[in-house]
UniProtKB/TrEMBL annotation:
It comes from Actinomadura spongiicola. Residues 42-95 form the HTH cro/C1-type domain. This is XRE family transcriptional regulator. GO terms for molecular function: DNA binding. PROSITE patterns: HTH_CROC1.
Amino acid sequence: MDRLVTRLYCSFVDVQSELSRFLKSRRARLRPEEVGLTSYGRQRRVPGLRREELAQLAGVSVTHYTRLEQGQSQNVSAEVLDAIAGALRLTADERAHLHRLARPDAPGSLSDESAGVRPGLLGLMDSMVLTAALLIGRRTELLAWNALFHQVFGEMGPVPSQRTASHYLFLNENARRWGAYWERNARANVAYLRTGLARYPHDERLKGHIAAMRMRSPEFEALWQAHEVEEWSGSGESLVWDHPVEGPIEFDYQRVLLPDDPEVRGLLLWSARPGTPSHDRVRRLAALATPGFPLA
């Protein structure tokens, strides 16, 4: 079934079509008045800028830009890509995404087989009795987690092949306990997968995962059509989780990058600030997760 889904996905999505759709989506969100152009009040047949207008802003020929938007990126220079990125007002993540789409990696640059999780990482996670820890793969696989994580967030899914952040966010009702933060997490998940597709264009497992999610979740598909991109950074933020027993718990959330493990994207950490009601709730959950852990 997974191979069938991958073949269906590949039949209508490849790197060229991704490049074309991405450029069109970013051109459509700009208005002439936003970039200093005069529209003269004429009715526009398409939203956003015309190809001619975008080419003018970027300082490239219309023919050159049109070929790029059609997915023909052979021999395009980094300077031209940067000029187009500037004209489209791309973010840093979007600019990097454009470069990857226009210059896809050679086939076979990365193994499709998941590497084993290093024992040292598992030991580190187990030692974090007051911090919920999750190890996530580059295809959003949930590779490993510690006892407190399970106690706080519950079951991640009974089927190993469906234990991914994508499946959890879009197909597990428990994820809605994130409340207002669910949408932010969902958008980030889809945006990260799109950057991954550009970084590993020949990863059949990644393509299959995206295809399955697009078929199973209308919400995932709607976000996919937005063509948003976002790198997986290490910046932290505060999130609130509505625990079914303890109630709302405010967490400081951190993402730790692991560049030495190519199949592992990073380590996710949730901790509550000492001296807060949230910290007391986490201590009670830690006592349940770790026998002998003191409540006080």
